[in-house]
Write a structure and sequence with these properties.
The chain is of the alpha/beta class and 108 residues long. It is built from three helices and five strands. A five-stranded mixed beta sheet has the order 1-2-3-4-5.
Length: 108
């Protein structure tokens, strides 16, 4: 059995939704996170989604897909998406994938 350690913490208010993701975002965790985050976004309908990646230890292409899907949903809802506090390894993945074309990315 494959076990992936992942989760998230949410803070919301004033049409801002801040989600701190933690653990690993891979093929096994992305589907559950996708469903949870979409339900949250559709319920809260924020104008701004901030994804805090400071506690992400590993992310593969499934993680990039997760981020892009939330970007598209936020765009449909009329909002914007930002990524913040990604470590150097995750930042490298984000840069290589050209994610700064879609997201506001705050370093550090």
């Amino acid at each position: 059995m494959i076990h992936t350690d992942y989760g998230y913490e949410v803070r919301s208010g004033n049409r801002l939704l801040r989600v701190c993701l933690y653990g690993e975002i891979d093929h096994h965790s992305a589907a559950a996170l996708r469903q949870d985050l979409d339900e949250l976004l559709l319920r809260e309908r924020p104008l701004r989604l901030v994804l805090d990646l400071s506690r992400i230890e590993f992310m593969d292409s499934s993680g990039l897909g997760l981020l892009m899907g939330r970007y598209r949903l936020m765009k449909e809802l009329g909002g914007v998406t930002a990524i913040e506090r990604a470590n150097a390894g995750i930042m490298k993945i984000l840069r290589l994938a050209g994610m700064e074309r879609f997201f506001e990315i705050a370093h550090g």
